[in-house]
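User: Please predict the structure of the protein below. I'd like the answer in structure-token form so I can feed it into my own downstream comparison script.

Assistant: Understood. Taking the following sequence of 123 residues as input:
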Amino acid sequence: MNNPWEHQTYPQMAVGDACEFCRIVANEVTSRVAYQDDVVMVIYNRLQWVPVMLLVIPKKHMTQEEMWQSSIIARLSEVAVKIGIEYCPGGFRILSNFGGEGMQSQPHGHLHVVGGTQLGRYV
């Protein structure tokens, strides 16, 4: 896949310099930030399949599994709902992908907030 907008799975767990989200949190890579506090950062997804595609990420590197099994999920969920209401007043979805078959493309745990249009049964 040479198109950077297509889905690409990650080959191995990447941390620090090799993790794109860690590099965004460290301001080593530019990203449009919709919200941030000491624990959470919300960035615009570079994919644009629907009008609103935001990523809610913990600033600390952790896997999807670690994120969902940690108390941080409550804070991430709170931010995701607030951002969803703000950016998608007509309705939105909060999604989380696990593994290659689940279309997970980043090793850094995160939630997707998608909306801004009629989503239909599935996106």
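That's the full token string. The chain has a mean pLDDT of 84.
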